[in-house]
Amino acid sequence: MRFSGLRVLTEGLTGNRGWRPHWRDPDPRPEYDIVIIGGGGHGLSTAYYLAREHGLSNIAVLEKGYIGGGNVGRNTTIVRANYGLPGNSEFYSHSLKLWEGLEQELNYNVMMSQRGVLNLCHSDGQRDAFARRANAMVNQGDDAILLDRAGVRRLVPYLDFDNIRFPIYGGLYHPRGGTARHDAVAWGYARGADGRGVDIVQNCEVTGIDIDNGRVTGVQTSRGAIRAKKVGIVVAGRSGQVAAMAGMRLPVESHILQAFVTEGLKPVIDHVVTFGMGHFYISQSDKGGLVFGGDLDFYASYAQRGNLPMQEHVMEAAMTLMPVIGKARVLRSWGGIMDMSPDGSPIIDRTHIDGLYLNCGWCYGGFKAVPASGNCFAHLIAQDRPHPAATRFRLDRFRTGVGLMDEEGTGAQHNLH
Fold it and tell me: CATH number for the 114-176+253-340 domain, one of 1.10.510.10, 3.50.50.60, 3.30.9.10, 3.30.70.940?
């Protein structure tokens, strides 16, 4: 089933009776060549690229809940490639290029909107840091525009520029950044993988990982044992728990990140705007709701909910930056479980167990990394060597100290990344 303008028109005129499910709901088979644990954006994109680029189809994606019920459906939808450190810079640049062709490739509307990402600076030091980052972005081949105070005012005149404590000095503008519809990304990759023969098995929780003589042989699940030659762990905030089934202790912590959305309003915010001193970020959805978030809840947890003090903190930051939204009513909030690494950068690597692969440590950056994460992880699983864009995402960097990528310079404290 392919989507087109003619198809949409035809179905609209005939009662929408010709649409079919986007993917099958199969029972798991006893054996696969590759099992992907985790049916979020990263797991689904991994399966898709394994099938599309490497010609593999005897693959299962095992999801303990439903597709779109994890972090891929619990985020603020931001897409960007404004990283400065070698390793991160190449990877997120690769991801943005994949985002830009994703709708055509998947034949699915993921509502990619390159409305631009604006990072505000509030001190001379921040402005200098943004200048260095902009140069790194341009050298990588991405776009970056350093704006002064007047340039920011022309772009977003509704901000509080003269706040006594946090006056706006300028900003770093990344025009190719923007937003995409989070759950549509999951659905599009699920549909694309299913169409290439991948089994997407929902309500199938992995309860154990089978290992024989140092090699993975399969997994135990709530729906029976499944044998596999290769297994990939892509479970975000549950990475530590699933890796423990294989006897591994990962250098990650799980923290909660809340997000919020207001009632629908007339268009007012045309970009993604971030507050440099309050760790607050906001955009406006196509339905009119203001989508925003802030800091982690700052305590380790596996609960998909947040606490009231952090909600108050985020609302205070919102009012500090743009008092104009003060009367908007918040409709709902939700929490995602972030797998925070010590240096704030991800891990895409083989483990010490033959046939067992790991993809985790995405911190705040999971959604914007979805295409490149799946593309690079599929390359690693299929060819047993890292993709050129992900060569620095090694697991052993935390043991050796070589190649650490602390993008924010905050040190080895998980919850500060």
Answer: 3.30.9.10
